[in-house]
Design goal:
The protein has helices at about 30-35, 50-60, 80-85, 155-160, 160-170, 180-190, 200-205, 260-270, 305-315, and strands at about 20, 45, 65-70, 75, 95-105, 105-110, 150-155, 175, 195-200, 210-215, 225-230, 245-250, 275-280, 290-295, 320-330. It is of the alpha/beta class. The protein folds into three domains: about 15-105 and about 225-230, Periplasmic binding protein-like II (D-Maltodextrin-Binding Protein, domain 2); about 105-215, Periplasmic binding protein-like II (D-Maltodextrin-Binding Protein, domain 2); about 245-325, 2-Layer Sandwich (Alpha-Beta Plaits). Strand 1 (about 20), helix 1 (about 30-35) and strand 2 (about 45) form a beta-alpha-beta unit. Helix 8 (about 260-270) packs antiparallel against helix 9. The longest helix is centred in the C-terminal third of the chain and has 11 residues, at about 260-270. It starts with 17 loop residues before the first strand and ends in a 5-residue tail after the last strand. Bound molecules: prephenic acid. InterPro entries: ACT-like_dom_sf, ACT_dom, Chor_mutase/pphenate_deHydtase, Preph_deHydtase.
């Protein structure tokens, strides 16, 4: 039976706008794309990297792009921040037009050991003076995983499963790959049966892998936030009356004391709540940064002019800045 998510559906006719996502199929980004865009109305195209999604949107090969932005357990997705930093002005037309949240539950996938014994290990770490009360993993292996010699996944997923990995797979080689679904693909290809992937239950179904452990994420509330990208701004979009958020990037003069505080003050003065702040190296001068600030509000619906006011004040303190987009706040509080 073909799974709905097995199709990247490859529709390219003008009737179907194309959505580019970090693939291959069954990645969490793919699942988010399917959740956000109706399968009958859109074509879905996997990209092999987050860069590929940005390129597809900037070139017009795709109408929309879906990229991970941050995870509630492990923080910012630096690949996406680096692309939004756009140091070489390669993605000048890209804007963030929406966000989507996905509950992320990771599975350990692989091939069951030829002789299946019980899962032996208790998962209880020995308390040490340094860690007197080690955290207990939320789940345990369903069968023995003693044969596992290497684990593949996306670096974000490793960071979300540290307790389980520390308890049951300590010291096992970790191999970073471009997505969790790529990891599942590689494990399927490894005929030695000694590789495992951290990926979704959907990836297990699609690649026909054995589930060695379920729900191995450190926290039950593990959630990833994704951005929806498009080229330019949809001037026809109607304001729904729901709360909005915006994202800007900026640089400041690093020799000027308080320059960053001055920029942040622009938002405080206009009573605009900040919802996230991140930074990445400029890669021009060591230890100088491009900052990202997300705030509640939108320039396109700004009845009391607070956003306009903050952005015009910011002109005085930022060396350079860019409004990366505004969208409807989708966080369920
Ligand atoms: O690897 C995937 O499946 C992805 O869609 C990427 C990604 C991420 O970069 O955060 C998405 C959700 C999870 O947080 C882990 C990985």
């Amino acid at each position: 039976m073909e799974h709905q998510a097995e199709k990247s559906n490859g529709r390219h006719d003008s009737d179907h706008p194309v959505v580019s996502f970090l693939g291959p199929v069954s990645s969490y980004t793919h699942q988010t794309a399917l959740q956000r865009f109706n399968d009958n109305e859109y074509g879905f195209e996997p990209a092999s990297s987050i860069t590929g999604v940005f390129e597809a949107v900037q070139s017009g090969a795709a109408d929309f792009g879906v990229v991970p932005f941050e995870n509630s357990t492990n923080g910012a997705v630096i690949f996406t921040l680096d692309l939004l930093a756009d140091r070489q002005s390669m993605y000048a037309d890209i804007s963030v037009c929406d966000e989507a949240y996905l509950d992320v539950s990771h599975y350990l996938l692989g091939h069951k050991a030829a002789v299946t014994s019980s899962p032996e290990m208790s998962g209880a770490s020995t308390p040490t003076s340094l860690i007197p009360s080690p955290l207990k993993p939320r789940s345990k292996p369903l069968s023995s995983i003693k044969h596992i010699k290497r684990i593949y996944t996306h670096p974000q997923a490793f960071g979300q499963c540290e307790i389980f990995l520390g308890a049951y797979l300590k010291g096992i080689e970790r191999i970073d790959v471009s997505s969790t679904s790529k990891a599942a693909e590689l494990v399927k290809e490894d005929k030695t049966g000694t590789s495992a992937a951290i990926a979704s239950s959907l990836a297990a179904e699609i690649h026909g892998l054995d589930v060695l452990a379920k729900a191995i994420e450190d926290r039950e509330d593990n959630t990833t936030r994704f951005f929806i990208l498009r080229k330019g701004v949809d001037e026809t979009a109607k304001h729904t009356g729901n709360p909005t958020k915006s994202l800007i990037s900026f640089t400041v003069d690093h020799r000027s004391p308080g320059a960053l505080a001055d920029v942040l003050e622009c938002f405080r003065n206009k009573k605009l709540n900040l919802t996230s702040i991140n930074s990445r190296p400029t890669r021009i001068v060591p230890f100088q940064y491009i900052f990202f600030v997300e705030f509640e509000g939108s320039l396109r619906h700004d009845p009391d002019g607070r956003v306009k006011g903050a952005l015009s004040d910011l002109e005085k303190y930022a060396q350079s800045w860019r409004l990366l987009g505004s969208w409807e706040d989708k966080l369920v509080r």
